[in-house]
Amino acid sequence: MAVDRRNLLPIGQFSQASGLSVTALRHYDASGVLVPTLVDPVSGYRYYRRDQVRTAQSIRALRQLDIPVEEVRRLLGGGEEELVAALQAHLRAAERRLEVQRSTVHRLLSRLTEGAGMTHRVTVRQGTAERILVRGATVDNSGLDAFLCSAYQEMYEVAGRGPLTLPRPAFVRFHGVCDDENETLVEACLPFWEDGAQPTDLPEGMTVRELPETALACTEVEGAAAVFPQILGAYDAVADWITQHGFAFAGPVRMVFRRWTGTPDAPDNRLEIAWPIGEPVDD
Q1: What residue spans define the domains of the chain?
Q2: Does the pLDDT at position 182 exceed 70?
């Protein structure tokens, strides 16, 4: 039976209307993302309905956002609400990446023009031996805040049952790089007085640990400088100082809550980046 082709566009015209190359259209046909309405059985020439132009334009836009082909196919097969939600999530992620890139550029420019020591003063203090409650998890930066919130809430509940005496600020130990691309073991730590009441009935996954006395190379950041990714400059400054002064890295770096309002970018927040150091050891 003859096909009425008046409502169809040949692939060349469809390519012009949609902004997708003929090569891309063939690829999307093979991958099932955009299948032509008619393929001539003799010539193999592809034809598309006119109302497929808008779909093709959407595909072009989604691919310009670096959304993978398989994800494009899934999104187009779902409802409009799912597509809107996916686009909003993609926008938030793009804005987050831009924020990280902007901070990284400013940090590098500062290092090149001023040097890390000009923006972050590093000192050494002696850290005392401590007994601490610890709750750990392997997370990246996107899951860090939620983990720390739940971990400290649980630990303060344990401390209140003691009741424990808390002689020093809570802190976090990072066993590796924790950013948007890397996950690592993160430990929420709560020091308590070892000569007073002791914790009992610890929840699963919470432990008591002894930390030895150690020297710490430290710098402090406040307000907006204490928020990721800006705070990474403080970690870099301490690491540079340790390297330049010939010390050894003697344990996971700590982020100490010197003053915390509960709001991440509050100007009154004050955090300390403290890295355990020791004398270099010859291999």
Answers
A1: 8-77, 123-278
A2: yes
